[in-house]
Write a structure and sequence with these properties.
By secondary structure, the chain is an alpha/beta fold. It is built from twelve helices and 18 strands.
Length: about 325
């Protein structure tokens, strides 16, 4: 299969929608990362996503919708909290867990009775969904375990020859995947952190939102943590990892000291990623949500052996960024 490179023109989006309706896979830009799209009700197309990515079949997918009415096609018993969050954050990088509609194939939800839904804040994504005529499932358009793609070329590097087409919409604005929130529990549970934070969610919810893959349950014996199964993407498997070894440090001074101890090893190129970089320096690069995945991929292209990430207080306080860093790290 030859993967087509498409533009964001009306004609190319119409062509991409035709490919989707024919059961093909099309990668497209969102505000977070590039997604690998298939029609949500075409189970064979959905299963083809897992084959193309090498993705485990027990890892559920997110359904991407263009408007509120799309949700009624994939979910039932939608709680009032959904609409409050929808009004504040959608379209945008928030995914909400709802009760699954019987029409949604098992391949989408990994057999669970819940379905993850979001509304991408990108004109190409919204137009493609509307033109295709139904919501699209769209995990990140990369080989499973690799850094997520924030540019069309990243998709081509991983999936050329495996999918029908890629729509090139330039670089993604947010740079990391959406926040995933289970609103079926009380209190709601953040299953995957992102750029929409716990504090932002609590401002709408009006009470505590639990951060992590557990809920707080009160019994006669007091408060205990109750673990959840794998309900959403990013909860179970190692993700986002480059080929390079990753070392996390607390400061630039520690990073430079660590680098000096490694650079003498034959053939081991070392890069430092830091939030505090004020200007380009040799082998010291900016660490942020927008640059993380691109830097991982650039490091692979340059055969970098070790990436040293400076996790200063600013980085550590960014829950979404730290989540991706920790999942990618081979050594902490």
């Amino acid at each position: 299969m030859q993967t087509q490179s498409l533009s964001t023109s009306t004609g190319d989006i119409l062509h991409a929608a035709h490919l989707l309706r024919a059961g093909e896979l099309v990668a497209f830009p969102t505000e977070t990362v590039y997604g690998l799209g298939a029609m949500v009700f075409n189970e064979s197309a959905v299963r083809a996503i897992f084959t193309a990515k090498g993705r485990p079949s027990d890892n559920p997918l997110i359904v991407h919708c263009a408007d509120r009415t799309d949700v009624e096609r994939v979910a039932i018993n939608i709680p009032p909290l959904f609409d409050a969050l929808f009004e504040r954050f959608c379209p945008g990088p928030l995914t909400m867990l709802l009760e699954r509609h019987i029409a949604v194939p098992d391949a989408v939800t990994a057999g669970l009775n819940t379905v993850a839904v979001r509304f991408p804040a990108h004109p190409v994504a919204e137009t493609l969904i509307r033109t295709a005529g139904e919501p699209l499932v769209a995990p990140s358009a990369n080989r499973s375990g690799r850094p997520s793609p924030t540019q069309a070329q990243h998709v081509m590097n991983d999936l050329a020859g495996r999918i029908a087409a890629v729509i090139d919409g330039g670089s993604c604005e947010v740079g990391i995947e959406s926040t995933v929130l289970n609103i079926l529990t009380n209190p709601p549970v953040i299953l995957r952190p992102g750029s929409i934070t716990k504090e932002m969610l609590e401002d709408v919810v009006g009470y505590e939102v639990v951060h992590g893959s557990y809920a707080i349950k009160t019994s006669n014996d007091g408060i205990s943590e109750v673990s959840f199964p794998t309900l959403a993407p990013g909860m179970k498997y190692r993700h986002y990892a480059p080929e390079a070894r990753i070392i996390l440090v607390d400061s630039m001074a520690e990073a430079l000291q660590t680098a000096r101890g490694i650079e003498g090893q034959q053939g081991n190129l070392v890069w430092i990623l830091s939030n505090s970089v004020k200007k380009p320096e040799h082998d010291i690069f900016l660490l942020s949500e927008q640059t993380l995945y691109a830097m991982f991929r650039n490091a692979d292209a340059q055969n970098v052996g070790t990436l040293i990430l400076v996790c200063d207080p600013h980085v550590r306080n960014n829950e979404g960024l730290m989540n991706r860093i920790q999942k990618a790290a081979s050594r902490k």
